[in-house]
Amino acid sequence: MPIEISASRNSQILPSKFGDYYDCDDLRLKVKLYLKINFIRKLFFIRNFLKKAERMTILNSAICPYCSCGCRLYPRYSANGRLTGLAPLRNHPVSRGSLCIRGWNAHEYVRYSDRLSAPTIRKNGNQYESSWEEAIGIASSCMQNVIQKWGPQSVGFIGSSRCSNEDNYLLMHLARSVVKTGNIDSKNRITYLPVLDAFYEGLRIGSPTITFNQISKADFIMVAGSDLSGSCPQGASRICDALKHNAKLAVVDPRGSNLAKLANHHLKVLPSTDLYWINGMISHLITKEKINAEFINQKTTGYTELRKGLEDFSPAFAEKFCGIPAELMMIVAEQFASAQNAVIIIGSGITNTRDIKKTVRALINLGLITGHIGKESSGILLSGADNNTQGTWDMGVLPDRLPGGFPLNMSNQEKYQQFKFKSKPVAGKNYNEILAGVISGDIHALYIMGDNPLEFHENRNEFEKALSELDLLIVQDLFPSEMTNIAKIVFPASAPFERAGTFTNSERRVQWFDPLIEPFANTKSDWEIIASVFRAMDSDPGVQQVSEITDQISDTIPFYENMKAENLKKEIQGITWLPDNDGNPSEPWLQEDWKGEFSTAFPSKDDTIERREEYPLLLIPGRFHSFWGTGIRSCRTSLLIREDQRSFIQMNPADAQKFGVKNGWRVRVISPAAKIETSVEISENIPPGAVFIPMHKIDGALHQFSRKSQPVRIESC
Ligand code: SF4
Questions:
Q1: Is the dihedral of CA 475, 493, 575, 410 positive or negative?
Q2: Inside any domain, residue 389
Q3: ipTM summary value
């Protein structure tokens, strides 16, 4: 209703559109009210406009290509249709209207100037641009020659957690159905796949057990080996939510970090000694009978062996190895056990240990013994993985499992035909064994999708030479690298924003993503390239479109059953899976016969890193704020590089004095296998005896070393 503005000073009753009545004495008050109502109207208009815009973009949105949080993004275009930015969706359960700096800027690397733009083939030592037909033809005939001459087990395949479920599923099928080899794995073998294997063996579910939002409601959060503010920003934001309602936070990390500053307890563990503090806590809880006996009796197996194995173990014994005061271990263990809901978050400190699987099994023991598994806001979450690490495992890009984590030893033909394999699948070499096979001469052909195995290889020179001498090396990627330089065939792939498919985040959320822009130059989606190789090898992949692969996955993997492309496209939040006994999505521990399995994951001499006199420091590799992995994509993003483009070695002031170096000095960092030059940064955040180098490639090039914690020494340049 329009408001009548009168100059009269007489009091008036003014009806508002909200049905209230305002007593207006003078003109000023009326004008104020008028402006206020108009302002509210505008707010409503803006809100409705934003809602409408968000609804419109639901049909055209993507998933962040970096970390395993899986934030959903929608695009921003310039007037001429160029992708100029990305923004978060407000009603998405993970992004909740916020992104980290990587997500906001994820569009930039996609059109970076050095993108691979056309297939190339190597002839007489030189690389030439070729047509797709020629490159695919040579790839397939070379592979057939290798199979004929050396057999199918001489071919290796490496998938990627940066590629979609559809890409990985089809690569797995090419390996298992067409070539008939089990030599397929991904680089996650050296970090995250052992974690998922441990989950599968201990909890009967090959994935973390809780969602990010459940962290917000936990009463006790234990973060093992990570500064989530960089590696898992959405996990860190949920911890902040939980702290607001007085949850307790314990951070087990040798380094001081943003998260450690917020913690009630910072347990400064010596690198790679995690099995000691975990078993120290478990033994204390057993001794003090602060365990959940009812849960152990009803829902677990193997407790007797665990208890017997820890009879001589104690926090005081653990302290000698891990450096955490026994008393602190006991306090944290008791608070964890007595919490209503408690969460364990696994970070890179755990995935850098010698025996990742054993360490994660020990953490599972801690969760099971206290009954903090399988309840709302109680469980285990993995942080810091790539955006499709979970999907790579689910799709069976594994040498010893089939899609969905099913074992290879299936009893009958009917069962493996469910996976559309023509013959019984065989076990193969894992990632490390495939790379070793290249050096030993057992592998003659290697197909690599979205990976650079030269990074972090301990024996770079020998490995590079062996790669260049392979009968066939196919590299499928976005950017040039040491690998594309020596490949026989290079297939240029489309980036995630240039195609459609699905990713599965670390809370098992399977999400459809749309193409936001046209494919770059003469590039193709990874799955399209693999399908062409299928056809060139006289096999039918049975798909013409990406959604047909999504449907095939849904038909094949029981717990992806309701994840047909059509369903996923409608669900902007994605669909989360959890298998029950029949493979139906459910919470397995709610099934009557679900039982978690304790393991005897005790420390042994091989698990700790031996210090040698000539290498007195322990190198902790890790991520640094805005960069992701070795920076293949994040180092091609101007804003992220502007944040901090140096690499450095961080060390404690006492060590700096001991080794006679000062802030900013250039030093050589030397391990038994590699050597790099970088600058010193002195920091109280690093414990004495340890040093930290970030993984990204600019300047310091940590990737020359192996990715694990390792002994090093430093020398002034
Ligand atoms: S990097 Fe992770 S937290 Fe950051 S926007 Fe991407 S998915 Fe979200």
A1: negative
A2: no
A3: 0.99
